[in-house]
Every structure is written in structure tokens, then in C-alpha cells.
Design brief:
Blueprint: E1 7-11, H1 17-28, E2 31-36, H2 43-56, E3 60-64, H3 69-76, E4 81-86, H4 88-97, H5 102-115, E5 120-125, H6 136-155, E6 158-163, E7 166-171
Parallel strand pairs: 1-5, 1-6, 2-3, 2-4, 4-5
Antiparallel strand pairs: 6-7
Helix pairs in contact: 3-5, 4-6, 5-6
């Protein structure tokens, strides 16, 4: 069993960030809660969700919450538990599609993190390393994701970037 502190796990698509985050939680020895922000809107997403469930295996409590992340964290992040939020990128997308203000929701999340007593592991995509999106909506999303990642990274004690399945610790509490 290891001591687990709240951590932001960043990486690109298929970088291994979710598997790394799952390992962090699994190694902690705490009860494992998987807070899923994805919605199964099509066959491809249903397949991705099924793959994640299979990879995680038994022993996880799965909570699905596409929008009310802070409310779910308030309920689920309790003594003896580690919560894995997978992922902030889909949460942001859900917020934008629902017409909710990402800046307001990010401030709610940082207020929660300021008082959180138990570990939360966040998975998020680093979307600023690729091409500039072609559409205004794509650029707006990329910019909002970059701001969200910066806000969370500034708030949590640990930040790790995953590339090709390998961790590069950007910020690590001792």
C-alpha cells in the first residue's frame, strides 16, 4: 500500500494515461471508485467504455456522472477511498454541449479541491500539442481544455504527463 495524493494525469489519445491512473489507484490499497464522465452515445463509445471496464477488472465501484462532477466527488471522495475521474476532457465536452459555463464549473472544482481530504486522480487529455483545430468550436474547446488543465494542475499536488505509456512527473509532492 502506498500513500496517494490527488494527481492530474495528462496525455494524448492512447498514451496510456487511463491505465497509469488505474494503477496509481490500485497500488494505493484504498477502495477504488471509478467516476466516469463518458456517455455511451454511439457504438464506438460503447465499445471504448466496455474496453475500460474489462481492463479495470473487478473491485471497482463505477459511478457515471457526465455533468455534476463536483456533486459526485463530494459524495464519493470519502475516507478509505480513492476516486479516479476519467476524464476531464469528456466532462468539459459534456458541459459545453449542455450550454454550461466551463469557467464556472472549473472554479467549483478548484473550490472542492481546496477542501478535499481524500485522494482524487484526474485523467485529462493534453490537446494543445497537435494541429490548430479547423473550426471555431474546435478551437474554443481546445482553449477551454488548456485552461481547465492549467487550473487543475495549479491546484493539485501531483501532475504527471504520460507519453507512450511512460510517466514524466511534472509536479510531485514529497
Amino acid at each position: 500500500m502506498t500513500t496517494l495524493a490527488t494527481t492530474l494525469v495528462l496525455g494524448g489519445a492512447r498514451s496510456g494515461k487511463s491505465a497509469f491512473a488505474e494503477q496509481l489507484v490500485g497500488d494505493s490499497g484504498l477502495s477504488r471508485v471509478y467516476l466516469a464522465t463518458a456517455t455511451a452515445g454511439d457504438d464506438e463509445m460503447r465499445s471504448r467504455i466496455a474496453h475500460h471496464r474489462t481492463r479495470r477488472g473487478e473491485g471497482w465501484l463505477t459511478v457515471e456522472e457526465p455533468l455534476a462532477l463536483v456533486d459526485a466527488l463530494t459524495r464519493e471522495a470519502t475516507r478509505g477511498r480513492a476516486v479516479l475521474v476519467d476524464c476531464l476532457t469528456l466532462w468539459l465536452s459534456n458541459l459545453m454541449l449542455a450550454g454550461r459555463d466551463p469557467e464556472v464549473e472549473a472554479r467549483r472544482l478548484t473550490r472542492f479541491l481546496g477542501v478535499a481530504k481524500y485522494p482524487v486522480i484526474f485523467v485529462s487529455n493534453e490537446v494543445g500539442l497537435g494541429l490548430v483545430p479547423e473550426t471555431p468550436l474546435g478551437r474554443s474547446f481546445r482553449d477551454a481544455q488548456g485552461r481547465l488543465n492549467q487550473i487543475v494542475a495549479a491546484t493539485v499536488p501531483n501532475v504527471v504527463f504520460i507519453a507512450a505509456g511512460l510517466p514524466l512527473w511534472l509536479k510531485r509532492a514529497l
